């Protein structure tokens, strides 16, 4: 299901308004200066403010979001994120649209935040790191991406700038609906929201250039590996013992799958079924 136009509504500018993914991000720039697009050109909600965007404006962040977002991206660059495509995409998506009103002042800090139903929105640095890992080293664009765990929809919005098609699966009905509300005003025609068991992946959209998971289990589900295209990349947390998790990267080749164990991370547990 996609966040597409509603018949009979007037046409509005689609997100992003302007975006040059090849333009370098300069970490030393002062707040509010161009980072691939004008500081005021990030996505704005169209129509009634029926989600946290309107509430966040009332909370006082309106008018400062551009400089806060650019500062966040500058910190990501300074802390080791090198892929300009990822930096530019994160410079475009207002994270404060995807957090609760009471937490909106923390939206651009490098911290995870609760989004309800025991789930969280990941730290910007973790989002950027995982996105950087799935991006083709050749500089080519991603075609189809599968996201496991839509949450509030923030990462799906960022992925919409990095891939031709994004399929995002959420097992919790409440979060699936919340993501739909959050994303609908952004008019992301290439984001498809699916309410289903994420452990099964989404075979209808396979094969995928990349699969990215926001929940960690004991191991990687076989369905994810099978739905990954040859030459594709999967990034997900898995249990590493003693209640800990590690980020893993899996690349599929003609000969099989190659797994790399990376740094320690902490994600919500991967569960089966829907609720």
From TrEMBL:
Region Disordered, annotated ranges: 1-54
Active site: 122
PROSITE patterns (alphabetical): PCMT
Catalysed transformations (reactions): [protein]-L-isoaspartate + S-adenosyl-L-methionine = [protein]-L-isoaspartate alpha-methyl ester + S-adenosyl-L-homocysteine
Pfam families according to UniProt: PCMT
Any single biological process term in GO: methylation
Intracellular or extracellular location(s): Cytoplasm
Protein EC: 2.1.1.77
Name of protein: Protein-L-isoaspartate O-methyltransferase
Biological source species: Saezia sanguinis
């Amino acid at each position: 299901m996609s966040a597409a136009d509603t018949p009979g509504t007037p046409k509005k500018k689609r997100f992003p308004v302007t975006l040059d993914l090849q333009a370098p991000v300069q970490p030393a720039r002062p707040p509010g200066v161009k980072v691939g697009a004008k500081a005021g050109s990030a996505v704005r909600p169209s129509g009634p403010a029926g989600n946290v965007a309107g509430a966040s404006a009332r909370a006082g962040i309106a008018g400062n979001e551009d400089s806060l977002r650019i500062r966040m991206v500058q910190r990501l660059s300074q802390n080791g994120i090198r892929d300009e495509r990822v930096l530019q995409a994160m410079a475009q998506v207002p994270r404060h649209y995807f957090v609760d009103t009471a937490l909106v002042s923390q939206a651009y800090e490098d911290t995870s935040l609760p989004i309800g139903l025991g789930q969280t929105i990941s730290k910007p640095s973790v989002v950027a790191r995982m996105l950087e890992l799935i991006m083709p080293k050749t500089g080519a664009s991603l075609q189809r991406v599968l996201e496991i765990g839509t949450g509030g929809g923030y990462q799906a919005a960022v992925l919409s700038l990095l891939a031709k098609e994004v399929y995002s699966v959420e097992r919790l009905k409440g979060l699936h609906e919340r993501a739909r509300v959050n994303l609908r005003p952004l008019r992301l025609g290439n984001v498809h929201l699916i309410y289903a068991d994420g452990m099964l992946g989404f075979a209808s959209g396979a094969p995928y250039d990349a699969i990215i998971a926001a929940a960690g289990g004991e191991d990687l589900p076989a369905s994810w590996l099978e739905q990954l295209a040859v030459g594709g990349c999967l990034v997900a947390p898995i249990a590493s013992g003693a209640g800990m998790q590690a980020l893993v990267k899996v690349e599929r080749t003609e000969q099989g799958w190659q797994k790399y164990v990376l740094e320690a991370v902490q994600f919500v547990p991967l569960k089966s079924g829907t609720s």
